[in-house]
Amino acid sequence: MCGIAGIYSLKEEGFQDSITQMRQALLHRGRDDQGIYVSPDRRFYLTHTRLSIIDLTSSGHQPMSDRQAQVWISYNGQIYNYRQLQAELKNKGYEFISHSDTEVIIQGYKEWGMDGLLRRLRGMFAFALYDFRGQNNGSAKLFLVRDRFGLKPLYYYQDPRLLIFASEVGSIIKSGVIACQRNQEADIAFFLFGHLPEPLSTIKNIFSLPAASYLLWQGVEKKIVSYYDPLESFTKPKIKNSASIYDELFSILRDSVEMHLVSDAPLGIFLSGGIDSSSLVALASKVKDVPLTTLSIVFKEQDYSELPYQRLITQQYRTDHRQFKVTQEDFYDELENIFAAIDQPTVDGVNTYFCSRAARMSGLKVMLSGMGGDELFCGYESFKTIGFLRAWQRAPHWLKAASGPVIAFNEKWRKLSYLENYTDLDLYLTLRGLFAPQDVARILGISEKEVHEVLNNFKLTADEAKLSALNSVDWLSYMEITQYLKNQLFKDTDFMSMYHGVETRVPFLDHLLLDYVASVDARLKFARRRPKSLLVKALGDLLPLEIVRRKKQGFVFPFALWLKKRGRELLQEAVSKENFNQKYADYLWQRFAQGRLHWSRVWALIVRGKQG
Q1: Of 203, 228, 253, which one is at a domain's C-terminal end?
Q2: Is 355 marked active-site?
Q3: Quick one: 18 and 95 in the same domain?
Q4: 383-415 pLDDT, tens per residue?
Q5: Mean pLDDT for all residues in the chain
Q6: Which entry of 2, 180, 355, 378 is annotated as an active-site residue?
Q7: Are 588 and 491 in the same domain?
Q8: Among 136, 334, 533, 597, which one is least packed by beta carbons within 10 Å?
Q9: In b/e form, how buried is each residue of 543-563, taking b as 16+ CB within 10 angstroms?
C-alpha cells in the first residue's frame, strides 16, 4: 500500500513546491521510499510514497515508467494475479526489470489498453497513469483509476485547465493551489449516512472518483468511464443445484485466499473468533505449509470478550497467535492520533485503528480481514427483517399513517419515517441511516428541505429498475456491498491501517468470488436459523461447531462504556466549535447516558467537531 498524488496542467506552470507538500502529507502511507517525477514540459507532476510489500528492492521504486519513459505510473494497491499476467506478457515478448505488480500494470496497459487491462486485474488498486505517446498531436492520455469495489481511495479536483489528485483529501489541500471551502452538502450527508457517500468530500470541488471507474483526460476531452457493476452478477440466472455448489464455492474461496496470501513482507490474519475471520484462518491453513500468524484484540470488559472462540481456532490450526488488550485508557491516550488519521469523517474505524496499531507493533505489514463476509453471505440481522420492511414500505399510505405519532415522538424509531417514501434509498436508510432528515436539520440549524435536496441528488446505481426488481436478500447484499462496505468500512480501513503503515486485504471481496455468490439462488444463501449457511456448508468440517453455532456478536469495542468517561466534554467541544444545536446535543447525550440511544450518534457530532 502506498500514497499517490499528482498535478496535471494544460499549460506550463511551476508546481514543484506543491507536489512536494502533497508528498509530505502522504508520508504516513509509505515510509519505505518516496519519489517525484516532473515531465520535461513541466505540465505533469507525479509523486509516490511507498509501503514495500511486493519486490522489496529499489526496482519497485515509484513513480515508475516503461523503458522508453513514455508511460508513467503512481500506483497504490495489490494485484493478486500479477504473476500470471506477467507470465502472459513475457510470452508476448515483454521484458521486465522488476518483480513488482506495478510494472505489470504498465506493460499490461501497453498490450491490452486500459479497458482490456482492467478486465484482467484481480485486486485492490488506485493509480494514475500518464501515456505520453501522441503528445505532439495532442493525443496523450492521463488516467485516474479505482478498483471494482473502491477498496483504495482516490480524490480529485479539476477545472478547465487543471487536475489535482491524491489518495487523501488532505494531500490535495496541502498543494496550496485551490481554495479550501467547506462543503455543507457533505455535512448533511455525513449525519444522514454516518459516512460520506461517493462522490462527496468535505471540501467543495474535491470529489471521490467512483469505484469501478476511471477518469480520462485527453486533450480537451474529460470523461469518467464505469467498467464494472456487481448488479450484473446479482441479475444473472440463478444457480440452484445445491449438489455441486458447495464444492465449487470452496474452490473459489480457497483460490481467493491463496491469492491474498502473496506477500514479500510479514503477513498475518485478524482473528475475532467469528465465522468470517475463522474461515480465513481455516482456508489459509489449507494452502500454507508453515504456521499462520494470527492477531486478536481483547478487552477486560467480559461482555465484549471473544477469547474462548479465538482460542478454539488458534489451537485447532496451531497458529502463531498474538493478543493485544485495548483499554479505556488506551482509547483516550490515542484519541488525538485517531482523529489525525481520519481523512474524511466517519462513525466507524476506531477498531481498525487499534488492530492496525497492534499489527505494526507485531512487525506485520500485511493483514487479512474478514470484511465482506457478512455482506456477501447474508450474516447481518437485517437480512431477517428486510422482507418485512420492504413490504411495509409498499403498504398504502393510510395504513402507515397510524404509526406516525410513535415514529415522530421517539428518535430511536424516527428513521422509520423513511418508509413513507417508495425509493430504494429510503428503504436502505431505514436500516443504515444515522439520523432522520428532521434530526439532521436540527443538528445543523437548517431546513428539512435542504436535507432532502441532498438526498434527492444521491444515486444508487445506473439502473435503479434492475435494483428494485431484486429479491430482498440479493437487494440487501448488493446495497451493503456498494454502500456500507464501499463508503464506510473500506474507507475507514484504508486511512486507519495506512496511518500505521499496514496493508489490509479482504479475500471475501475478490470479484470472481462475488460474481459466483451473487448468482446463487437466495434460498441457498440465506437460512433464517443458520447464519451464513452457504459459507459454512462450503467449509464442511473446517470450523468448530462452537464457532458455527455461536450467537452473532460482531467485532465491536466497549464504546458505550468508554464514552461515558469524557464523552460529554468532547461533545461540548464539538458543539462549541461547529455551532451545532446545543439543546439538541444535550438531549442526545441524556438519551445516550440513559442507555436509550446508540453511541454512534453522539460520536458523530464529536468526530465532525474534531475534524472540522
Answers
A1: 228
A2: no
A3: yes
A4: 999 999 898 888 777 666 666 555 555 565 677
A5: 92
A6: 2
A7: no
A8: 136
A9: bbeebbebeeeebebbbbebb
